[in-house]
Automatic annotation (TrEMBL):
Protein name: Protein-methionine-sulfoxide reductase catalytic subunit MsrP
Lineage: Bacteria, Pseudomonadati, Pseudomonadota, Betaproteobacteria, Burkholderiales
Enzyme Commission identifier(s): 1.8.5.-
Cofactor descriptive note: Binds 1 Mo-molybdopterin (Mo-MPT) cofactor per subunit.
Tagged with keyword Signal: yes
Record organism: Pelomonas aquatica
Enzyme class, broadest EC rank: oxidoreductase
Main function: Part of the MsrPQ system that repairs oxidized periplasmic proteins containing methionine sulfoxide residues (Met-O), using respiratory chain electrons. Thus protects these proteins from oxidative-stress damage caused by reactive species of oxygen and chlorine generated by the host defense mechanisms. MsrPQ is essential for the maintenance of envelope integrity under bleach stress, rescuing a wide series of structurally unrelated periplasmic proteins from methionine oxidation.
Length: 323
């Protein structure tokens, strides 16, 4: 007897909604005025995740510029080609070694120049504001880029609750640095812990995302579980992973990359095709997943394509000096 097993790409018959049921559901939703705005409809991730991690849906973001139309990078590429030096400097290291990271229990300390400091348990932090899906371009200073559907909420939601004082001019992010969980700390490539920082107005910009998931699921360890920031108009290294401390400070902090090579990495690190890095031109980029033999490089856009949204933050600044 022959039993037909569906090919992996074929939906199982039980997954196919009968047409009549589908139409009925649409009619009911339409009658309720929910056809487009249904949280169920909105919470469908844009691109498929790996299916192994907990689901983390987010509603389509309404923030200007939050949903780029570029085709998302495959989950396989986004989770196997990573920079996370705490697990090694090779692009394949984080996917192979980050299983030792323990994303629970996890606490994020919010401290410094603010009226309401506190230690947030990760699960409480995740409930602070509504989760949104945002499709951002991520441009690494090394000359490649990806398009990732992240899940999180604007960092400003957390900052507002902390009530920064008038002295708070910058926000500093510190990554976990635990030798027991992170084998890369044995190397001296960077001065651990990994520290990054933003000016307060940059951190308050609605596009600055406190990120808990991607592709409709919680973050894989190699992408910065359980919480990271994503700053789409800046080079990827500003988007610190696996954050344990957020501190409000008066003086401009020195990031780990500035510390290691001040002539190569400035504080701002806004994506800028007109200012070359000493080792890499920033004029164009290779989109991961499109890098076949004949694939064309894409021109890199000012502020990674987010100029309309963030350009005002830097009005009047000499971007060659403040690179
Ligand atoms: N803690 C920490 N955060 C980090 C890094 C790192 O090495 N350590 N690498 C950065 C760099 S260079 C890039 S390009 C992005 C990559 O994020 P992704 O792996 O999720 O694509 O993470 C950034 N955040
Ligand atoms: Mo990067």
């Amino acid at each position: 007897m022959l039993i037909k097993t569906p090919a992996p790409h074929e939906p199982h018959p039980s997954e196919i909604t009968p047409h009549r049921v589908y139409l009925n559901r649409r009619t009911t939703l339409a009658a309720l005025g929910l056809a487009a705005a249904s949280p169920l409809a909105l919470a469908q991730p844009t691109a498929a995740g790996g299916g192994k991690l907990a689901k983390l849906p987010g509603a389509r973001s309404a923030v200007a510029g939050a949903m780029v139309l570029d085709k998302p990078t495959s989950y396989a590429d986004a989770t196997s080609y990573n920079n996370f030096y705490e697990f090694g400097t090779d692009k394949a290291d984080p996917a192979q070694r980050a299983h030792t990271l323990k994303p629970r229990p996890w606490t994020v300390a919010v401290e410094g120049e603010c009226a309401k400091p506190g230690n947030y348990d990760i699960d409480a932090l995740m409930k602070l504001a509504a989760m949104e899906e945002r499709i951002y371009r991520l441009r690494c200073v090394e000359g490649w880029s990806m398009v990732i559907p992240w899940v999180g909420y604007s960092l400003s939601e957390l900052i507002k609750r902390a009530e920064p004082t008038g002295k708070a001019k910058f926000v500093e992010f510190t990554t976990l640095a635990d030798r027991a969980q992170m084998p890369g700390l044995r190397s001296g490539v960077l001065d651990w812990p990994y520290v990054e920082a933003l000016r307060m107005d940059e951190a308050m910009h609605p596009l600055a995302l406190l990120t808990f998931g991607m592709y409709g699921e919680v973050l894989p360890n190699q992408n910065g579980a359980p919480v990271r920031v994503v700053l789409p108009w800046k080079y990827g290294f500003k988007s610190a992973k696996s954050i344990v401390r957020i501190r409000f400070v008066e003086k401009q902090p020195r990031s780990s990359w500035e510390q290691s090579a001040p002539q190569e990495y400035g504080f701002y690190s806004n994506v800028n095709p007109n200012v070359a890095h000493p080792r890499w031109s920033q004029a164009s980029e290779r989109r991961i997943g499109e890098d076949g033999l004949f694939a064309k490089k894409r021109p890199t856009l000012m502020f990674n394509g987010y100029e309309a949204q963030v350009g005002q933050l830097y009005a009047g600044m000499d971007l060659r000096k403040f690179f």
